[in-house]
Amino acid sequence: MGEIINGKEFAKSLKSDIRKFVEDKKGEGIRVPCLATITIGEDGGSMYYVNNQIKLCKDLGLEPKHFSLDESIKEEELIGLIENLNEDREIDGIMLQLPLPKHIDEKLVSSKISYKKDIDGLTDINLGKFYKGEKAFVPCTARSAIELIKSTGVKIEGKRAVVLGRSNIVGKPVAQLLMNENATVTICHSRTNDLKEICKEADILVVAMGKPQSIGRDYIKEKAIVIDVGTSSVNGKITGDVIFDEAIEVASFVTPVPGGVGAVTTTLLMKNLCEAFEENVY
Ligand code: NAP
């Protein structure tokens, strides 16, 4: 029987580091890190994420500044706001909640966020720097997956790692981060042949397909580490891609859903905010 990798516990220790950081800054008489969040219209999904970000900011002693914009906002007005926030020395991170209304070019507008304030690492500059091995913000979900693997204490170097999914936001950055740790990495996708056989060779299996309950014991090598990034809503319940009860019987470590990767992601975003603050203030 394997062990559960507890994302909530991991996030707790990150949170206490951030609270200490904030207290130290206050002690030095410096302002606290400030996150600007932007939502357009009333998209329920975006509001859920942004409310979580604002709540966590407050909880950690960080300063949230929310901009709730009307659905009818013009593209140039939104770009103007982002450019002002880029210039504002009192703003350290900018989170633009996607998707944007159809009349706004999402790629163009997102690219206007300064890479120094792009704390979720989604701009082309941050992605370019990251894949070139330079210091950059990395998409937080991918980083969360790696941090949870490291939290097991198992050495990543030399291990066979398999990543299921090749999206820009999860699969590709996870694969790159594993490669940075000297794992030997295989990326699989919807056109991969012999998926089961490839997964069976993985010492580390990261699953990010968005196909609920599709990876069971047949896909998992004895004593593997299994990281489930999947979050699908099934009958109103957040559900992972991995059949947890089967995985935990075979693997040495498994992340649950919920309470695994997702429990760490927003806290890592706040950690990145503190790093952006250090660059911005000093
Ligand atoms: P995505 O853009 O839809 O990408 C899914 C990937 O899985 C694609 O590369 C796809 O292959 C691959 N795939 C789909 N079906 C497959 C199959 N049967 N066999 C092998 N590969 C298959 O999704 P995403 O944005 O990367 O997100 C993946 C999951 O992570 C979703 O459940 C999402 O909700 C979740 N997520 C969680 C967090 C968090 O904080 N916990 C954050 C972001 C995302 P092709 O490229 O060939 O289409």
From TrEMBL:
Superkingdom field: Bacteria
This protein's UniProt keywords: Amino-acid biosynthesis, Histidine biosynthesis, Hydrolase, Methionine biosynthesis, Multifunctional enzyme, NADP, One-carbon metabolism, Oxidoreductase, Purine biosynthesis
Start and end residues of each Tetrahydrofolate dehydrogenase/cyclohydrolase NAD(P)-binding domain: 139-280
Coiled-coil ranges (or none): none
EC number(s) on file: 1.5.1.5, 3.5.4.9
Biological or metabolic pathway of the protein: One-carbon metabolism; tetrahydrofolate interconversion
Domain Tetrahydrofolate dehydrogenase/cyclohydrolase catalytic: 5-120
UniProt KW Amino-acid biosynthesis keyword: yes
InterPro entries: THF_DH/CycHdrlase, THF_DH/CycHdrlase_cat_dom, THF_DH/CycHdrlase_CS, THF_DH/CycHdrlase_NAD-bd_dom
Reaction catalysis annotation: (6R)-5,10-methenyltetrahydrofolate + H2O = (6R)-10-formyltetrahydrofolate + H(+); (6R)-5,10-methylene-5,6,7,8-tetrahydrofolate + NADP(+) = (6R)-5,10-methenyltetrahydrofolate + NADPH
Binding annotation for NADP(+): 165-167, 231
Known role: Catalyzes the oxidation of 5,10-methylenetetrahydrofolate to 5,10-methenyltetrahydrofolate and then the hydrolysis of 5,10-methenyltetrahydrofolate to 10-formyltetrahydrofolate.
Subunit: Homodimer.
Family per similarity comment: Belongs to the tetrahydrofolate dehydrogenase/cyclohydrolase family.
Name by which UniProt lists this protein: Bifunctional protein FolD
Protein's organism: Clostridium simiarum
